[in-house]
Amino acid sequence: MMKDNRMDLHTEPFVLNMGPSHPATHGTVRFLLKMDGERILHCETEIGYLHRGFEKHCENGTWTQVFPYTDRLNYNSAIQNNVAYALAAEKLLGITGKMPERCTAIRTIMCELARLADHYTGLGASMLELGALTAFLYFVEARELVWDLIESVCGARLTSNYVRIGGLSTDLPEGFAAHTKQVFATNRVFWTEFDKLLTKNRIFLDRMRDTGALSREDSIAFGFTGPLLRAAGVEYDVRKAHPYLMYDQVDFDVPVGFAGDNFDRYLVRMEEINQSIRIVEQVLAKLPSGPINVDDPAVRNPSKEAVKSRMESMIFHFKNTIEGIQIPAGEVYVPTEGSNGEVGFYLVSVGGGKPWKCRVRPPCFALTQAVGEMVKGGFLSDIIPTFDMVNLIGGECDR
Amino acid sequence: MAELREQVKRKFGDAVLSTHADFGDQTVLLRKESALEVMRWLRDDPSMLFNFMMDLTAVDYLGKKPGDQRFEVVYHLYSLKHNHRIRVKAPVAEDDPTIDSVVSIWKGADWFEREAWDLYGIIFKGHPNLKRILLYEEFVGHPLRKEYPIRKRQPLIGPEN
User: Which pLDDT tens digit goes with each residue over A81-125?
Assistant: First the structure.
């Protein structure tokens, strides 16, 4: 009898609007869902709520004035964007080979600290949204400690504005190595606790395993990069494929998954935390001494002392500030490995002190595009872990 | 082995307007009519295998290039197998800002082409759903065109209910 009743029931798909201001759509994004009960038939993703004209702003300022805007792309790992932009501008200037060793080493350290902060935030917030508040607290604390490190270097926690074309704004503070060692010791404990709470937890596994999966072929066709691509079994990491900074001088592994589901994405990020710590420790162990800025007053401002006592230095300072660093005409694309995937800057100069075009390839733009494909046929609740693992950062996706 | 840009030039001859390798970035400038064909070959040929379309964008060279080829559509491709990269560019005129869509080659091009339409007004022929992505439907103009004033404000018009 029951069976017949069910067959007579007339049902039709309904449209559900999720976001842009839903607690789980952090970064403001909107999903238009066509639902059959709890099943997702179709999902359309709408972005752009955080668009603020990044490129337009960049084109209307000097080359140096771009840095604060890059902070606001992926604000979880702002320094990586600073570095990526600086590397591109330096390539266009032709001074890549002249960068002091210490500058390169510090940039490497800061990039990996940023990756740590990003992964702690991403994983922690994801667990919060899955209801694992305790795990969230462990990783938020770990992130706080990394932010303390970043703050001790550049005075800011999120919007670092630390890197400059041809150098850095300041050197590392005294006692940085000891401070880092202490933070890593604490964070290793947090990592273990986090791992114990989740990785073999039945409830967690049910939410993560086999949800939001995308095949290797589809991941490539969608232009996936970073942890999501590696979780699908593709061993592509810019740090290995096109080594930059000091990545060819340190030992580290690139974790790779095989199922391409949310659980593998989680595992890849968890292991990347360990690898980043490993990289920072190696670089700190052989941190070279010496200058942090390239020796060229037309690129990197002379010291304040020189500016106030020597006329030539003052002229350089004035011209660099008012007219901007002069970068010859040309175009360049530099890929770097951001926490979320390939962050590439495509810069076009027609000569002069302002960028003609300053394009950033945002990794999570390509990832967010595929959310519809990833959740299709799944349950409504699968959107939460899937979207968390995509780790959409509105500032970067919408620019 | 010949450089990538030379191989493309040898294969497609007249379709290639110019090439360069400034700063080590392999670059080919194509006629836009041939862009689709060349890029399909770039993805499928065993010596190329550019399976990743990493980036797609446009550049507005207003007043900086001779002739009327005001825009350039720029593709950055990457091959996982060979670990090499190439930049493909195609000039697009102001009075006919169209080019073939590459969504049929790389699915991921979908949103990138929508963005180039949104911000530069380049029309991608054959795109399945060419509508604005970062701005709202009622927005007038394409803000990354050089003549669009940076301080211009537009009222945010919500959808009609």
Answer: 999 999 999 999 988 888 899 999 999 999 999 999 999 999 998
Candidate from A47, A55, A369 with C-beta closest to B144: A55
Q: What is the pTM of this model?
A: 0.90
Q: In this structure, are residues A234 and B80 in contact, taking their beta carbons and an 8 Å threshold?
A: yes
ipTM for the assembly: 0.90
Least Cα separation, residue A342 to chain B (angstroms)? 8
DSSP state of A65: G
Q: With respect to residue B58, please indicate whether it lies within any of the assigned structural domains.
A: yes
- Using the predicted structure, report yes or no on whether residue B58 has a pLDDT greater than 90: yes
DSSP per-residue letters across A117-151: HHHHHHHHHHHHHTT-HHHHHHHHHHHHHHHHHHH
Within its chain, how far is the Cα of A365 from the centroid? 12
* Residue spans of alpha helices (H) in B45-156: 109-120
Reduced to 3 states, what is the DSSP secondary structure of residue B73?
A: strand
Chain B nearest C-alpha distance from A171 (Å): 29
Q: Determine whether domain A58-296+324-398 maps to CATH 3.40.50.12160.
A: no
Please list every residue in chain B whose beta carbon sits closer than 8 Å to the beta carbon of residue A365: 111-112, 115
> What total of structural domains would you count in chain B?
1
Q: In this structure, what CATH number is given to the domain that contains residue B23?
A: 3.30.460.80
Burial class (CB in 10 A: 0-12, 13-18, 19+), A371: buried
Q: What is the mean pLDDT of chain A?
A: 89
Q: Does pLDDT of A28 surpass 90?
A: no
User: Does the pLDDT value for residue B161 go beyond 50?
Assistant: no
B116 lies in some domain: yes
Residues in chain A within 8 Å Cβ distance of B144: 55-56
The residue of chain A nearest to residue B104, with distances taken between CA atoms, is A221
What residues does each domain of chain A span? 2-46, 58-296+324-398
B12: in domain: yes
Range(s) of the domain holding residue B21: 4-125
Mean pLDDT of chain B: 87
Q: Would you tell me how many other CB atoms lie within 10 Å of the CB of residue A142?
A: 28
Predicted local distance difference test score (pLDDT) of residue A81: 92
| Contact between B87 and A333 using a beta-carbon 8 Å cutoff | yes
CB-based contact (8 Å) between A379 and chain B? no
The pLDDT assigned to A116 comes to: 93
Residue B138 lies in a domain: no
Beta pairing class for B123-125 and B98-100: parallel
Q: Which of B81, B145, B133 is nearest to B109 (CA)?
A: B133
**For tokens 């929508």, what's the residue?**
B114
